Structures are given as C-alpha cells and as structure tokens.
Write a sequence for this structure.
C-alpha cells in the first residue's frame, strides 16, 4: 500500500521535509489539489496545533489556516493568551479533499485510508519539533491521533496520555464554530473554544515555573 512513508526522507530538517512533501504521491488526494499544504511555525514551538486538512483558501495559498477558520483560530488563541510564536500549525492530511460543484469547491472529509497514508508527515513534524503540548482541533485530528473511540464532545479540554507529547488535548475545530446557527450559538461555541485553549495556556505556564 502506498503512503507518505515512501516520500518522507530519513533524517532531515523541517525545510527538507516540506520540500519532500511538495512531491508526495502517497495517496490520490494530490491529483485534485493545487499543492501540498505543509505545517508552518518555529522549529522550537512549544505547541503543535493539528487541524483536519487544508481548506479552499489554504489550497490556493499553500499555507495552513489562512482562510475563515484560520482567522477564527487566530482570534481565539489571542483571547486565550497563547502567543503565535509558540505555535506550529499543521494538518493531519496535507492536500485539500473536495468535490467541484459549479464554481465552488466543497470540502470532503478525508477517509481512514487517506489519513493513514498522510500521517507519516505529521509524525515527522512532531519528531522534529518535540512540542510540550499537542492540541488536536476537531474529531478528525483527535481520532486520527487518539483512536476512533475518542469523543471530542465528552473529552475536549482534558489532557490525555499519549507518547506524542507530554501534554495532549483536543478541542473543537474552528470550522464547526463557523457552522453554528445564529449569533448566540456561535458566541457560545467560540467561548468554549477559548476556554479549552486557556487550559492549554495554564498548563504551559505551570510547566515553565
Ligand atoms: N481547516 C483545517 O483543518 N486546516 C486548515 O489549514 C484550514 C482549515
Ligand atoms: Fe501525500 Fe498526504 Fe497529499 Fe496524500 S494527502 S498525497 S499522503 S501529502
């Protein structure tokens, strides 16, 4: 079975990983996408945040979280008191999966096989960065990393045992907040997201002291 593992260089740096990922053919998703959207942020990042896959805007620009969900994420981390310079941003799947409907490109969830194929990139990123905290955004990222039985609704904002980082936690995906019906629901969803990120900020502070 093909996967990104056939394309990940053995011992290397983040820039070299990014370069190799640009040529990845580990699954079929590269065919319909504009480009690989690799992770971005400082090598010494204390936090790695992981989304599902690039969206429409990310696919065109080539950078993670630059679209509407990314804007919301940026506001939330600021409100939670996390610094941008501490965060490396990436996704479980590095190509935009979608279907074309007229002029629109509609997001499609990556399936288990595509997630399995792509995680060697995330593993390599985590290995190079060695973050103190891993924050999984939404069910796709959480279940890809923590297993199919993980439930974001029940377990969000708590720290779970994992070999991937000293502290590992999951929260909602910012896109889910954008899908809220009505202002009140959206505000509540945003507040919940910020609350989970404050838990991360507190835990980081506790480790530093
Ligand atoms: N949603 C994600 O999960 N990742 C992005 O990079 C953008 C939107
Ligand atoms: Fe490679 Fe991942 Fe893109 Fe599939 S989605 S081609 S595994 S980078």
């Amino acid at each position: 079975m093909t996967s990104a593992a056939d394309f990940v260089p053995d011992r290397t740096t983040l820039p070299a990983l990014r370069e190799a990922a640009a040529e990845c053919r580990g699954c079929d998703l590269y065919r319909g996408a504009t480009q690989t959207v690799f992770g971005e942020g400082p090598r010494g990042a204390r936090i790695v945040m992981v989304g599902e896959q690039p969206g429409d805007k990310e696919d065109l620009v080539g950078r993670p979280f630059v679209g509407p969900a990314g804007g919301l994420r940026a506001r939330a981390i600021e409100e939670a008191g996390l610094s941008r310079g501490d965060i490396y941003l990436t996704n479980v799947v590095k190509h935009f999966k979608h279907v074309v409907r007229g002029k629109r490109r509609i997001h499609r969830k990556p399936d288990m096989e595509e997630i399995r194929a792509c995680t060697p990139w995330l593993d390599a990123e985590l290995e190079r960065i060695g973050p103190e905290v891993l924050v999984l955004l939404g069910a796709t990222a959480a279940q890809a990393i923590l297993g199919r039985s993980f439930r974001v609704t029940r377990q969000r904002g708590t720290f779970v045992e994992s070999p991937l980082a000293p502290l590992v936690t999951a929260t909602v995906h910012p896109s889910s907040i954008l899908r809220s019906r009505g202002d009140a629901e959206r505000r509540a969803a945003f507040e919940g997201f910020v609350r989970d990120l404050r838990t991360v900020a507190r835990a980081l502070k506790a480790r530093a002291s």
In short: The beta strands are 47-51, 87-91, 98-101, 104-107, 133-137, 159-160, 167-171. The pocket of uracil (ligand 1) is lined by residues 51-55, 58, 64-65, 67, 69-70, 91, 175 (CB under 6 Å). Residues 4-208 form a domain with the Uracil-DNA Glycosylase, subunit E fold (CATH 3.40.470.10).
